[in-house]
Every structure is written in structure tokens, then in C-alpha cells.
């Protein structure tokens, strides 16, 4: 089992619970998280660092983020667009603030191309906008982390794969859907998962947030990703073992793991 999205830097957790997991991808929201993730990967080789700047950390320092990259980094992100806390789209200030997020997102997309790593995309109230931007770039791959685009946007994201000849060399789909512990208590999300092709689904905890049933209300940890796997196996009506194999193969393909 692989938790493809957890925040384990010191500001989130004192204790790292990863028993039974093959890997945990450490998502980064800011420069400091990115540095912490690189340090954590030295402690345990199952901890795979991503580096990136979240759209709400707009004043963070991209130039120094780029300098942090080394071979251990498995992904760039989380990066993207978050319009959930911006003023209403009709307000004058919306355009200014959104433009800054777009600029930071584009820089990280280009970085992902340059270093040949997938993107961990955070898109809140801005899935369509994120897709429109990503369409402009070739040879990128990634995951819509904590996918919140509903059934109707699944096709759009699949189409980001495009017709690029390099698709074959990638060995499978380039774009994935990351689903979290809220699958265990949000009925609507079950319907979404039913509509996501099996070879495009990966699972995550977003620890310390989004704790699944039966621990809802408590702090989340990577080990609890097993409850999300279990829920998917019920939805797919497959054994946990077969479910795990499919999902782990997807994660390994995206993050280029053995
Ligand atoms: Zn996150």
C-alpha cells in the first residue's frame, strides 16, 4: 500500500506512522515543508519527498524551491489553484489574486517538465481553470490530488493525456485522480470513484487532514490509507489484494517507483 499524499513535516506531526506501507509520498505546501521532506527521506527510504508551493502560500520563494531539487524528489507539489478563499469572481481584486496563483502554478509546471517529475495538483474551486492551463504544456504528468471535480470533469482530465507519442514510453496513463479518506463518509464521492477508470486511481490520506471512518474526528496518519483501500475494494467489488495491486501499480507508474 502507498499513501501518495501526506504532510509529515514537523509543523504537522511529531510521530510518523507508516507500518504496513510500501511508500509514503510527502507533499509540500511551502519551502520549509520541502526542506523538511528532504530531511525526512534521509530517515526512512519509504518516505519519498515532493517539493512545492501551495497556491495559498503565494508569497513563498520559488527561486529557492528550484534550488532544492535533487534526485530524491519524486514529484513537484502540491501546486495549483485555490479559489475557495478568494473574493467573489466578480470583484476587482479576484483577477489580481488569481493571476498571482496562475503565475506560481505555471512556474512549477515548467519546473516539472525540466526535472521530469509528475505534478501533485491542488485545485479547489478551480478544476476547470487548472485543466485549461495544463493543456498548454506537453510531456507533463500528474495527479489531481484530493480530486474534487465531480463526475463531470473526469473526462477532461483524462484528455490531458493528449495524443503525445511519448505516452507509450510512459507505460500507461499520465493523469491520475487522488482520492482520500472522505470517501469513507461522502456518498457522492463513491459515485465519482465508480466513474474513474481503474488504471487512473491512486489513494492518499492528506494527513493530518481528512481522517477516514472509523477514526473520523481524530488526527490522520498514513497508516489509515488502508481504510481508503478497503472502501475502494468494496466499491469495485474486488478483493483487497487485487485492489491493492491495481492501485499500487498506478502509483508506481506515476511516481516512477520500483
Ligand atoms: Zn495536501
Uncertain runs: none
pLDDT averaged over residues = 95
Structural class: alpha/beta
Rg on CA atoms, Å: 17 Å
CATH T-level topology: TIM Barrel
CATH architecture: Alpha-Beta Barrel
Element order, helices and strands? EEHEHEHEHEHHEHEHH
Number of strands: 8
N-to-C terminal Cα separation, in Å?
13 Å
Defining key terms:
binds zinc ion; 258 residues; alpha/beta; TIM Barrel; eight-stranded parallel β-sheet; single chain
Written overview of the protein:
This protein has nine helices and eight strands. By secondary structure, it is an alpha/beta fold. The protein has a single domain, classed as TIM Barrel (Alpha-Beta Barrel). An eight-stranded parallel sheet has the order 1-2-3-4-5-6-7-8, sandwiched between helices. Strand 5, helix 4 and strand 6 form a beta-alpha-beta unit. Helix 8 crosses helix 9 (240-255). The mean pLDDT is 95. The chain binds zinc ion. Zinc ion is lined by residues 5, 7, 27, 78, 206.
Summarize the structure.
The protein has helices spanning 31-43, 62-68, 92-115, 127-134, 154-158, 166-170, 187-195, 225-236, 240-255; strands at 2-6, 23-26, 47-51, 75-82, 119-124, 142-144, 175-179, 201-203.
Amino acid at each position: 500500500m502507498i499513501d501518495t499524499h501526506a504532510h509529515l513535516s514537523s509543523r504537522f506531526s511529531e510521530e510518523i506512522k507508516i507500518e504496513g506501507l510500501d511508500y509514503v509520498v510527502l507533499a509540500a505546501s511551502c519551502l520549509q515543508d520541502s526542506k523538511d521532506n528532504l530531511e525526512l527521506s534521509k530517515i526512512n527510504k519509504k518516505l519519498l519527498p515532493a517539493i512545492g508551493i501551495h497556491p495559498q502560500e503565494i508569497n513563498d520563494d520559488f527561486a529557492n524551491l528550484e534550488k532544492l531539487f535533487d534526485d530524491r524528489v519524486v514529484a513537484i507539489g502540491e501546486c495549483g489553484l485555490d479559489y475557495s478563499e478568494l473574493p467573489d469572481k466578480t470583484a476587482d481584486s479576484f483577477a489580481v489574486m488569481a493571476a498571482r496563483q496562475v503565475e506560481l502554478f505555471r512556474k512549477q509546471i515548467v519546473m516539472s517538465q525540466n526535472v521530469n517529475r509528475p505534478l501533485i495538483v491542488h485545485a479547489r474551486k478551480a478544476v476547470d481553470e487548472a485543466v485549461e492551463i495544463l493543456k498548454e504544456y506537453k510531456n507533463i504528468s500528474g495527479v489531481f490530488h484530493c480530486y474534487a471535480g465531480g463526475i463531470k470533469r473526469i473526462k477532461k482530465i483524462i484528455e490531458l493525456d493528449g495524443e503525445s507519442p511519448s505516452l507509450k514510453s510512459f507505460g500507461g496513463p499520465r493523469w491520475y485522480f487522488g482520492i482520500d479518506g472522505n470517501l469513507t463518509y461522502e456518498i457522492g464521492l463513491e459515485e465519482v470513484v465508480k466513474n474513474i477508470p481503474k488504471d487512473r486511481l491512486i489513494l492518499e490520506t492528506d494527513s493530518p487532514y481528512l481522517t477516514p471512518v472509523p477514526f473520523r474526528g481524530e488526527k490522520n496518519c498514513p497508516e489509515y490509507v488502508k481504510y481508503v483501500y478497503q472502501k475502494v475494494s468494496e466499491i469495485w467489488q474486488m478483493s483487497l489484494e487485487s485492489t491493492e495491486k491495481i492501485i499500487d501499480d498506478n502509483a508506481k507508474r506515476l511516481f516512477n517507483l520500483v
